[in-house]
Structure formats: C-alpha cells, structure tokens
Design brief:
Elements: E1 22-26, H1 38-46, E2 49-52, H2 55-64, E3 73-76, H3 83-94, E4 98-102, H4 114-124, E5 128-131, H5 136-144, E6 151-155, H6 161-171, E7 177-182, H7 187-198, E8 203-208, E9 216-221, H8 222-230, E10 238-242, H9 252-262, H10 268-279, H11 283-295
Parallel strand pairs: 1-4, 1-5, 2-3, 2-4, 6-7
Antiparallel strand pairs: 7-10, 8-9, 8-10
Helix pairs in contact: 6-7, 7-8, 9-10, 9-11, 10-11
Length: 296
C-alpha cells in the first residue's frame, strides 16, 4: 500500500540510544505521515544503514520528520533485487551493522519483498527486531465491523479469471474473516466472482484510500457492493474483507462422526462439550448421543 505524506508535518527529535546491531524492520505510514511511531523514527535516525523497498519514499518520509541522512548509505531492496544485493545486506549484518529496512508503506513482509531478507537473516541466526506500526489489513479490519477474533490475510488474488475462481473456492468455507488486497482496476471483477463463489448475501466491506484524504468504507452484502462498484470508477489502494462462512448445518451423521473421533481421546463429558461448541448444536442433545455411543 503506497504512502502519501504531507510535507507540513512536524519534525522529530530522535532519542539518544544507540541502535543495536541487526536487522530492524520498520513499519511506515500507509497514508498520513504522522502515523509513524516514535520508535520507528528513532531507528531511522540511528541505524548505520538504511534499506528501503523505495528509497525515494523513505527519503521523503525522513525529510518530513526532520531525520537527517548524515552521509549514511540508503540501499534499495525490492522484488527485482538480485542475490548479490541480498548477500551485500547479510554481509553488513554479519559485520555488526544496524540495518533498518522499511517497506514502501505499511508493515514489512506483508505483501512486501522484505520477507526474503528477513527469512535469510533468521536462517543465519542473526539478530532481528521489528518496530511495529501501520498495516492496511489491520486498519481495514478495525473499521470493517466484521468479526475480528479470527481472520485470514489472503494477499492479492490471481488476476486470471480461472485462477481467481479457484482461489476463492478454496477460501469459501474458511471460518474466519477474509482480508484481501486488490487493484482498483480488478475490483469489480473480484466482487462479481465473489458473489458467485461465496454467495450474494455474505457480508463484505471495501476499504479505499485508508488514512488518506479520500478514505472511503463501503459495507453490505457482496451483491450490493458488486453493483455499487460496477457503476462507478474506483481509484486508490483497496482492501476487501468478507465475513466468515456460515457454519454448516449439523446432521445426525455429522454429530455421530464428530463424537466418534472426539471419544477416542476425550471423556464423554468433554467430547460432548467439544462437539457441541464446534458444530453449534445443543450440548444436551450431543451429550445424550455421546452416552449412547460410548455404551454401544
């Protein structure tokens, strides 16, 4: 998700603590420049080496907050960086340098090339920490009004129609709120396919331009959202959220099968409670069935 910033933001006076050696993953604003944390600014001010998915974006963010480069290296690391660039960064870390990595906008590793770098650092056992902060997926979930106790970030869906349909079919029964990123050019096609694969009445939310001037949140059944989006031109960064799948209706056979499995490792009482909660069925009914099956 791309950051946009207002040059009028106030500057930050960095802390005096030295930044310890290792890779420091720095979350940057997805829109409003003031959403950056003080800790993130301290890391950017004090790290030996600065690494960014987009060096121009990072330089601009540091200018807004009054963080000087002070002659430090600013190294680009993105999807098209080769193995040589990876080895260069690992070498700096092995030499005991503090390296700050910032994504173009948002939390590093969330649809971000920093994943490969972080995985390599972890594999070598080198020190690594994170300065947490903005994330479009979490911001959208917070605003959505959909259940947040369990959610699945599914990233960007495939652009090809057939692959996108298969992708959605795999997610259709997931018992969690689904979170996806999408291009505004493909949003209408995605919602239309969601109506077919997930159901017209399933509740969904489309968040656009989060934390920016033209932020917009659309809520409603998938069919209604698909109709609204198809009738207008959509621009900006998009997050799509869909409510979890409705629980499958329990049958006598499904209750019996679940109990047979649960009774292999649980008492009758615990098995009845577990199956009742899992299938959304009256515990009294399940307990009676459990007693019958345990005595049979």
């Amino acid at each position: 998700m791309r950051q946009t910033a207002d040059p009028a933001e106030t500057s930050h006076t960095p802390g005096l603590r030295a930044i310890p050696p290792g890779l420091h993953l720095v979350s940057t604003p997805i829109g409003a420049a003031r959403d950056i944390t003080l800790r993130a600014l301290d890391v950017l001010a004090g790290a030996d080496v600065l690494v960014a998915e987009d060096t121009r974006t990072l330089r601009h963010l540091m200018e807004i907050h009054g963080i000087p480069l002070g002659g430090r290296q600013v190294i680009a690391y993105h999807d098209h960086s080769g193995e040589g660039q990876m080895q260069r960064l690992l070498g700096l870390l092995a030499d005991g340098k503090s390296v700050a990595y910032a994504s173009e906008a948002g939390t590093p590793l969330i649809s971000d090339p920093g994943f490969e770098l972080a995985r390599a650092v972890a594999a070598l056992g080198l020190p690594m920490s994170a300065a947490p902060g903005p994330c479009a997926a979490i911001c959208a979930l917070t605003l959505s009004g959909l259940p947040s106790d369990r959610f699945l970030f599914a990233g960007f869906p495939p652009s090809a129609q057939g692959a996108r349909r298969s992708f959605l079919e795999e997610l259709a029964a997931v018992q969690a709120t689904l979170i996806l990123y999408e291009s505004p050019k493909r949003l209408a096609a995605l919602l239309a396919e969601m109506v077919k694969t997930l159901g017209a009445t399933r509740q969904a939310v489309v968040c656009r331009e989060l934390t920016k001037r033209f932020e917009e949140v659309l809520r409603g059944p998938l069919a209604d959202l698909a109709e609204k989006v198809a009738a207008r031109e959509i621009k900006g960064e998009i997050v799509v959220l869909v409510d979890r799948a409705p629980p499958a209706e329990a049958t006598e056979d499904s209750i019996a099968a679940a109990l047979d499995l649960a009774l292999q490792s649980m008492s009758v009482k615990d098995a009845a409670t577990f199956v009742s909660q899992t299938l959304g069925v009256s515990r009294k009914i399940v307990y009676k069935t459990a007693l019958d099956r345990s005595q049979g």
